[in-house]
Amino acid sequence: MTASHYLGAGIVLLLTAALGVSSGRRVKSAGDFISGGRRAGAGIVAGSVLGSLVGGASTIGTAQLAFTSGFSAWWFTLGGGLGCLMMACFFAGPLHRRGASTLPQIIAGEYGRAAATAAAFATSIGNFLTIAAQTLAGAALITSVSGIPPLPAVIIISVLMLVYVVFGGAWGAGLVGLGKTALIYVGVGACGLIALSLAGGPAGLSGALPREQFFNLFAGGVSANIGGGLSLILGVLTTQSYIQAVISARSVKQSRAGMFICAAAAPMIGLMSIFIGMYMRLNYPDAPSAAALPLFITETLPPVAAGAVLAALLIALTGTGAGISLGLSSVLTVDLYKVYINPKADDRRMLTVSRLVIALILALAAVLTSCGLGAAVLNWSYLAMGLRGAVGFLPLCAALFLRGSVPPRYVTASVLSAPCAMIAGNALLPSSVDPLFAGVLCSLGIMLAGLLAGRAPPHI
Question: Which of 63, 125, 219, 351 counts the most CB atoms within 10 A of its CB?
C-alpha cells in the first residue's frame, strides 16, 4: 500500500469512528443502547442488519469461493436474503409486538427460566466463535495488505469493533452499519461491474470457464449447498443482533420495510463478489483464492479509491463482529446478569454493564485469536450460524405461533440436544451432509413429541 492507499483508508476509518462516537449522544438509557429506544426507522433497521450480515463472508469469502467454485458461492448471501424476507413476512410483527428485547426473554416468557438460560448459553457459544473468527479475518486482511504484524492488527480490529458499537449500542450499529454498507455497495458493486466488463460480460465468463463447475448453484453438492443456505435462513431468524434490529424500529411497518431492504440488498453484494472472484480466476489463476477481492481492488482502482474500499471491507469484518458482540452482550446482561447476579440493577447500571461486557467479549476474542487458536476458531465458526438456528428456531416458532402447546421441559430438552446433535453430525456424517440437518431434526423430533404430549401446567 502506498501513501495514497493509506489516505483513502484513513478517511473512511475516521468517518466510521465519528459516526460511532456521535451515535452515543442518542443513548440515554439501557433501552436506547440495547434496542434504540424503539425509535429507529427502516434505514437504521436495514443498516443494523446489513452491518452484521454483509461482512467478510459476504464479500472476501464469497469472492474466494467463487474463485474455485463459481456461482455455488452465492448461497451465503442468498440464504441471508431469504432469511430477511422470512423475517419481514412472518416474524417481524410478532417479535416487535412481543416487547421482549432478547431471544431468551421470549423463550422465558413462554417456557420458563430453565429453557431460557439453556438457550442463552447455547447461542452465546456460537456468537462468541463468530466474533473471534471476524477478529481473525480482519487481522489477516490488515497484515496481507499493509505488512502490520499480527498482534497489532488484532488490536486494531478489536478497537474498531469497540468504537463501532460500544458508544451507541443499537444506534451505533445502525448508523455505522448504514454508512459502511453504503461504502461497501458502492465500492464492491463498482468492482463487480468493472470485473464483468473486463471479462467480456456474462458471455465472456461462460465461454472461458467450465460451466458445470462455475455456473452451477449446486457445484458444492446439493445437500451441502442447501444446508448452507438453510443455516443462513435459520441463523438470521434467531441471531440476537437481527432480532434486536427488528425490535428497535418505531413500528412494525418500519421493521418490515427495513427487512425487505435487506432481503433485496444481501444477494446483490454476493453476486458482485462472484463476478470478481471469477474474473480473478481467469486472469490471476495462481493467486491465493483468499486474496481475490483485495488483489482486484489494489490492481484495478485508483490508489485513494482502493484504500477507501479496502477500509470499507475492514469495517465490514469489524461490523459483523461488533453487531454480534452487541447481541451477545444483551443476552448476557439481560438474561444472566439481571436475572442471576443483580436483579435490582437500575437502568444506569445496566447500561454500564452492557458496555463493559462488550469490551470484555472483544478482549477475550482478541486474546483467543492471538494465542494461535485462530484456525480452530475459524473452522468452528462455520457451524456458528447453523448452531444458533438449530437451537433457537423451533422454540422461537412455538413461542410466537403455538403458545400454550408445548410443555417447557420439551423445549429445554430441545435447546440442550440440538447442539449436541450438530456436533455429533459433524463428526459422524459424510462431509457432503450439513450437520445442521442433524440438529434441526433432533429439535423437531423433541418439539413434535412435546406438541403431542400437550402443555403441562404453566411454569412458575
Answer: 63
Give 31's contacts (C-beta < 8 A, 6+ positions apart). 37, 38, 101, 347
The CATH number of whichever domain residue 301 belongs to comes to: 1.20.1730.10
Q: Can you count the helices (H) and strands (E) in the chain?
A: 22, 0
What is the sign, positive or negative, of the torsion defined by CA atoms of 256, 258, 261, 263? Answer: negative
At 191, list the grid cell: 468492482
Q: 223 near 432, Cβ under 8 Å?
A: yes
Task: Tell me the DSSP string of 271-298.
Answer: HHHHHHHHHHHHH-TTS-GGGHHHHHHH
Domain-located, residue 290: yes
Q: How far apart are CA 270 and CA 235, in angstroms?
A: 18
Is residue 384 assigned to a domain?
Answer: no
Total domains in the chain come to 1
First to last CA, the chain: 61
**What digits encode the pLDDT tens for the residues 263-317?**
999 999 999 999 999 999 999 998 888 788 888 998 899 999 898 888 888 877 7
Q: Is residue 97 part of a domain?
A: yes
Contact 87, 242 (CB under 8 A): yes
Amino acid at 301: L
DSSP state of 291: G
User: pLDDT (tens digit, 9 = 90+) per residue, 91-132?
Assistant: 999 998 887 777 888 898 889 888 888 888 888 887 887 788
Does residue 431 form part of some domain?
no
Range of 47's domain? 3-372
Spatial separation of the C-alpha atoms in residues 56 and 190, rounded to whole Å: 18
3-state SS class at 311: helix
Find residue 249's DSSP bridge partners. 40
From CA 7, how far away is CA 135, in angstroms rounded? 23
